[in-house]
Amino acid sequence: MTTSPLPPYVAAHTPTGLLIGGEWRHATGGGTFAVSDPATTDVLFEVADGAPDDGLAALDAAHRAFPAWRETAPRTRSDVLRAVFDAMTARAEDLAALVTAEGGKPLAEARAEVAYAAEYVRWYSEQAVRLDGLTRRAPAGTHHQLVLRRPVGPALLITPWNFPIAMITRKVAPALAAGCPVVIKPAQLTPLTTAYFAELLRAELDARDLPTGVVNVVPTSSSRALTGPVIADPRLRKLSFTGSTEVGRTLLKQAADGVLRTSMELGGNAPFLVFEDADLDAAVEGAVQAKMRNAGQTCVAANRFLVQEPVAAEFTDRLTAAFERLVVGRGTEPDVTVGPLIERSAVERVDEVVAEAADAGARVRTGGERPGGRGYFYPPTVLDRVPEDARAVREEVFGPVAPVVTFGTEADGVRLANATEFGLVAYAYTRDVGRVMRLAEQVETGMLGVNRGMVSDASAPFGGVKSSGIGREGGEAGIEEYLEPLYVAL
Question: In what residue span(s) does the Aldehyde dehydrogenase domain sit (predicted)?
Answer without folding.
Answer: 24-484
